[in-house]
Design a protein that fits this description.
CATH architecture of the largest domain: 3-Layer(aba) Sandwich
CATH class of the largest domain: Alpha Beta
Bound molecules: adenosine-5'-triphosphate, L-tryptophanamide
CATH superfamily of the largest domain: HUPs
Structural class: mainly alpha
Distance between the termini: 36 Å
Number of strands: 5
Largest sheet: 3 strands, parallel
Number of helices: 13
Strand content: 5-15%
Helix content: 40-55%
Strand order of the largest sheet: 1-2-3
Radius of gyration: 20 Å
CATH topology of the largest domain: Rossmann fold
Shape: globular
Mean pLDDT: 96
Length: 326
């Protein structure tokens, strides 16, 4: 069976973008693949985190994965920092990566240009991500469009290592969902809906209440043309609403476009709100039952055990090949 592997950072509250671009892909694929989903808490500290909040969010992430349909009997679910091999392999991979290729990462360029105290960790972040992927010989990595370049870097690193030391790593491929691969901010539809943005008016969090969800969608920025059709360049706001609707109802954007072609913007927003509310209230209901349960700890204990065993073997193989130790 082929393997998929993905993770969602606990660096902020998960959003509708995280659900559509991240979790829901794994939910769809979990029956056909051996599936790994984890919480990359070590990635989260590339920017400063409050320790108490970070710990809360790690647990919240896991509860949300489960509430959104990740089946613990079909997935290995774990926390990155509970497996020390991730950081171990990452060092070796840092020494397999050139400054030039790491410097080309768009996400680093974007994030570092907006901050004052940029950490070295933010720069080497994609290499830790390569380690996450290569440790488990993942075939496919379901991610949003923004992470494609990082998976491509993991491929390049794996190929280089294999060429130098002999066949060691599987070459992974990104798996980008076609509909809604990039959900945009409702107030600023030319930028990604991001859990780390300062202005939360344009972001739907998975745990927002019904009133807030409706208010945010009804006040989404659109355009003055008054016609509903998909055109991300000239109509980013309307296109985003169509993408959200299509992704959550599992239909094509064309079908959504056809369905709403005679709607005015107010009615379109109302329909989109109804869909988002339906999906998120169902997730929240399940989340509330899970968040304080011991089920989460049992699942994570199992994940820690299984992944440590797999990762240990891979790291020992790597250390042996590069000549470490006695
Ligand atoms: P942010 O920039 O919001 O802090 P991130 O990219 O670090 O977030 P994660 O929550 O770690 O986000 O991402 C989990 C997955 O969801 C990734 O595969 C990412 O590509 C995807 N994703 C996040 N936001 C969006 C979005 N707005 N549209 C589509 N996919 C998204
Ligand atoms: N960088 C990713 C989170 C992430 C990840 C991974 C995703 C860390 N390690 C390994 C897939 C595979 C993000 O920001 N969304």
């Amino acid at each position: 069976m082929k393997k998929i592997l993905t993770g969602l950072q606990p660096s902020g509250e998960l959003t509708l973008g995280s659900l559509i671009g991240g979790i829901s892909q794994t939910v769809k694929l979990q029956n056909e693949y051996e599936s790994y989903i984890f919480v990359p808490d070590m990635h989260a500290i590339t920017v400063r985190q409050d320790p108490k909040l970070l710990r809360e969010r790690i647990r919240k992430n896991v509860a949300l994965y489960l509430a959104a349909g990740i089946d613990p009997s079909k997935n290995i679910i774990y926390i990155q920092s509970e497996n020390l091999y991730h950081a171990n392999l990452s060092w070796v991979l840092e020494c397999t990566t050139y400054m030039g290729e790491a410097s080309r990462m768009t996400q680093f360029k974007e994030k570092s240009s907006k901050k004052d105290n940029v950490t070295v960790g933010l720069f080497t972040y994609p290499i830790l991500m390569a380690s996450d992927i290569l440790l488990y010989d993942a075939d496919y990595v379901p991610v949003g469009g923004d992470q494609k370049q990082h998976v491509e870097l993991a491929r390049d690193i794996a190929e280089r290592f294999n060429k130098t030391y002999g066949d060691t790593f599987k070459i992974p491929e990104p798996l980008i969902r076609d509909v809604g691969f990039r959900i945009m901010d409702l107030q600023n539809p030319s930028s990604k809906m991001s859990k780390s943005s300062e202005n939360t008016k344009g972001i739907i969090f998975l745990l927002d209440d019904e009133k807030t969800i409706r208010k945010k969608i009804m006040s989404a920025v659109t355009d003055s043309e008054g016609k509903v059709y998909y055109d991300t360049k000239n109509k980013p706001g309307i296109s985003n609403l169509l993408s959200i609707y299509a992704a959550l109802n599992d239909i094509s954007v064309e079908k959504a476009e056809e369905q709403f072609k005679d709607y005015n913007y107010g009615n379109l927003k109302k329909e989109v709100s109804d869909t988002v509310v339906r999906v998120l209230l169902d997730i929240q209901d399940k989340y509330n039952k899970l968040i304080n349960s011991s089920e989460i700890d049992e699942i994570l204990d199992r994940g820690r055990e299984v992944t440590n065993e797999i990762a240990k073997k891979k790291v020992e193989e790597v250390f042996d090949k590069i000549g470490f130790g006695r």
